[in-house]
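Q: I'm building a small set of examples for a reading group on sequence design. Run inverse folding on the following structure and report the sequence directly after it, with nothing in between.
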């Protein structure tokens, strides 16, 4: 067996700091810097959704989100194998961040004139991430073999992303979808390989991308403030009420993820090892955190419409966005909980159904009233869930009565 001690570890590229596989670490500041481009990209996605709330517009935004998730997720795996403390890794992240700026800027025009810039820059970022992943392992290790097997088909993904950017729609859409399918097949195949998975780092990186998405809710609710002040109209009572309700909405989503699920996912990962831990990280983080994050972005677009026109009825397109966004967020967390613990968070399913019953009918109700209703349902969900889990924990810790 190869010696994996930090002093004697034979690196694929000298100078890349690769901690011992059993060592966990926090995200390096360069990884947080890399996330800044995705703040910009998510803002562009919200803008697209507000400007084009049709089914076709939402479908295009969904495809773009998954494509953005591709490089972000790749760098999480790559940084998990290596360490941001080495200058070589930092340089790769800095270069990737620089290339991410034109990628993010072209999100709004990715199906038009911005397609070439979006496709080429995204492919370049992804390719750098794959190289970093491969170079982060001993070239005689099982992890290195897994990284190579995973990277080879993703060369096709990279080529399809570039090719899609250089042709017109619908060929662009077709090539990008095929590229994502190749990526999906590669991740499925990767589940049989050995990987270095540091639970704390994985949990922190995905918590940060949730924070980035929640930041878009804050940006969305700031829009009416800027609009009102620029027009010299000030802020009406309805606008102030809608901003408060949107702030509650963001806080409830934060609590619904970070209070119990987020630390629970990390603790469960730490109990696993080998192939089982790699599959867990792929399923809970790479797969399931994508719809959780996307749900927040989709809901943010609906909140922008509500806070811009709080006293008016919420158009059907935005009611669907809010409901589907919440469904992705709540359902995604529930799916991750089931994958991790084989348990169901039934309150979240019930809350999604109740919110759907309130949002989907065509009623003469203002957007502000709907948002307050959604907040109330979500708060009730968290309270009931908390009581149930606390009661269960109490029952599990009480010593049995001796016979």
């Amino acid at each position: 067996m190869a010696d994996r001690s930090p002093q004697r570890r034979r690196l694929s590229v000298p100078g890349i700091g690769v901690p011992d596989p059993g060592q966990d670490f926090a995200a390096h500041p360069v990884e947080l810097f890399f996330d800044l481009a995705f703040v910009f990209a998510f803002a562009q996605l919200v803008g697209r959704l507000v400007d084009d709330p049709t089914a076709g517009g939402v479908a295009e935004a969904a495809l773009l989100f998954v494509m953005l998730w591709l490089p972000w997720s790749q760098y999480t795996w790559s940084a998990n194998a290596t360490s941001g403390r080495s200058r070589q890794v930092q340089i790769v992240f800095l270069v990737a961040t620089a290339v991410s700026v034109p990628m993010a800027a072209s999100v709004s025009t990715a199906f038009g004139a911005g397609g070439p810039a979006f496709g080429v820059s995204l492919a370049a970022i992804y390719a750098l991430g794959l190289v970093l992943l491969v170079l982060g392992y001993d070239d005689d290790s099982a992890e290195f073999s897994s990284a190579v097997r995973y990277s080879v088909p993703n060369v096709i993904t990279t080529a399809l992303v570039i090719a899609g950017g250089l042709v017109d729609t619908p060929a662009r859409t077709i090539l990008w979808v095929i590229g994502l399918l190749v990526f999906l097949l590669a991740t499925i195949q990767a589940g049989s390989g050995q990987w270095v998975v540091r639970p704390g780092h994985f949990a922190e990186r995905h918590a940060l991308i949730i924070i980035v998405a929640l930041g878009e809710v804050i940006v969305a609710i700031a829009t009416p403030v800027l609009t009102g002040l620029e027009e010299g109209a000030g802020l009406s009572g309805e606008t102030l009420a809608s901003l408060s309700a949107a702030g509650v909405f963001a806080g409830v989503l934060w609590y619904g993820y970070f209070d119990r699920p987020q630390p629970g996912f990390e603790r469960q990962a730490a109990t696993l090892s080998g192939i089982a831990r790699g599959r867990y990280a792929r399923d809970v983080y790479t797969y399931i955190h994508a719809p959780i994050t996307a749900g927040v972005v989709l809901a943010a677009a609906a909140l922008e419409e509500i806070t811009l026109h709080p006293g008016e009825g919420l158009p059907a397109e935005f009611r669907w966005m809010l409901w589907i966004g919440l469904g992705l967020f709540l359902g995604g967390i529930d799916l991750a909980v089931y994958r991790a613990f084989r348990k169901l968070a039934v309150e979240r399913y019930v809350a999604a159904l109740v919110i759907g019953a309130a949002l989907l009918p065509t009623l003469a109700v203002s957007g502000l009233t709907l948002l307050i209703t959604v907040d109330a349902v979500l708060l009730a969900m968290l309270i009931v869930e908390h009581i149930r889990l606390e009661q269960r924990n109490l029952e599990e810790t009480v010593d049995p009565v001796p016979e």
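The chain has a mean pLDDT of 89.
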